[in-house]
Amino acid sequence: xxxxxxxxxxxxxxxxxxxxPGPKALVNLAGSPLLHHALHTLESLKDLVGxxxxxxxxxxxxxxxxxxxxxxxxxxxxxxxxxxxxxxxxQGLQGLLTFDKDEGQLAPDDPDAIVLIHDAARALTxxxxxxxxxxxxxxxxxxxxxxxxxxxxxxxxxxxxxxxQELEITPAGATPDRSRLRCVxxxxxxxxxxxxxxxxxxxxxxxxxxxxxDDAMLVTRLGYQQYFVAGSRRALKITYPLDxxxxxxxxxxxx
Length: 255
Ligand code: CTP
Ligand code: MG
Fold this sequence. Notes:
By secondary structure, this protein is an alpha/beta fold. It is built from seven helices and twelve strands. Strands 1, 4, 5, 8, 9, 10, 11 and 12 form an eight-stranded mixed beta sheet that branches. Strands 2-3 form a two-stranded antiparallel sheet. Cytidine-5'-triphosphate (CTP) is lined by residues 10-17, 24-25, 54, 81-85, 88, 119-121, 237, 239.
């Protein structure tokens, strides 16, 4: 038997950029909620012991209904997420600690458990991407991140100016070497003891630091090396309405 795998699926976001009413994970994607697609792929992941889904506090019942209707072949529970993705993952990790594996309950210092953290927003992530991540963790990598090459050249904004809005006329700065950069996806995979320690440390230091964009960054702060494996375009993060249109086409033409 392989190493036990646990997964936190983050789905507690509101989907502001998508602009639909209600949380993004409940949005209809080719006939089923986005969350359903994310959970469906996990049905074929060998050695999966349990999944925790983070949900917005006001939607716990709706999420529970999706899980029940899906009749999943693995234990799956819903926990309330937090106001940031990082805090939602922390809550999800706590939820994992109540799953039983054969020899007993998952402990936060278990180095043999493989813990995946996956965004429900990447609802069409292929199974082989999960498998690549798990294999790399099983081979001894403490933190594994699926990644793709960039299609666009990237360029910095000069000086201190920073905006998430559409750019005004703004001075541009340096152009990093794109061949050395990667776009980072999920699922990210970790040795169990390392991801619990990373999030625990961050909970204790949160006031001072914050600013981690993903879970692998937290593990790097603990001093561990993270490793890339191949990601895929199919694992796109459904963020804007156009992404949902593309994902709908993909889901309808997947065979
Ligand atoms: N997420 C979460 N808890 C939060 C914020 C985000 O569990 N407090 C989850 C989202 O549900 C999503 C993943 O983290 O699956 C990545 O977040 P993102 O794509 O940004 O989704 P939203 O935050 O929902 O979207 P937006 O930023 O447009 O509001
Ligand atoms: Mg967000």
